[in-house]
Specification:
Radius of gyration: 15 Å
Number of helices: 2
Strand order of the largest sheet: 1-2-3
Shape: elongated
Order of helices and strands: EHHEE
Largest sheet: 3 strands, antiparallel
Helix content: 25-40%
Distance between the termini: 27 Å
Structural class: alpha+beta
């Protein structure tokens, strides 16, 4: 999403059946999640809600371990006259 600055936060919930995760293949690779989010944020979209919902769905589709995802997107400098601050949307999705 070009033309503005955004902050995206993603919280993933997943269950592992082993006592300690020792290898990246036993968990969700956050670099891959970052790459997914970065790629989606490059596609201009009028509503932040749409982007948050699509990111959540893509994460659940791509990462079998993910059981629940929370996505928050903040527009850091919204084009609102005399407004100082950010605006944000959040979306949660589970299996």
């Amino acid at each position: 999403m070009n033309g503005n600055e955004f902050e995206v936060n993603v919280v993933l919930h997943y269950h592992v059946s082993i006592p300690v995760v020792n290898h990246i293949h036993e968990t969700i690779n956050y670099v891959e999640v970052y790459d997914l989010v970065k790629a989606r944020m490059q596609n201009p979209t009028p509503l932040l809600e749409t982007v948050a919902m699509e990111i959540a769905q893509q994460i659940l589709n791509q990462f079998a371990l993910a059981e629940h995802v929370f996505v928050s997107i903040a527009k850091l400098k919204p084009p609102i006259i005399d407004y100082k601050g950010s605006v944000a949307v959040s979306y949660e999705l589970g299996r």
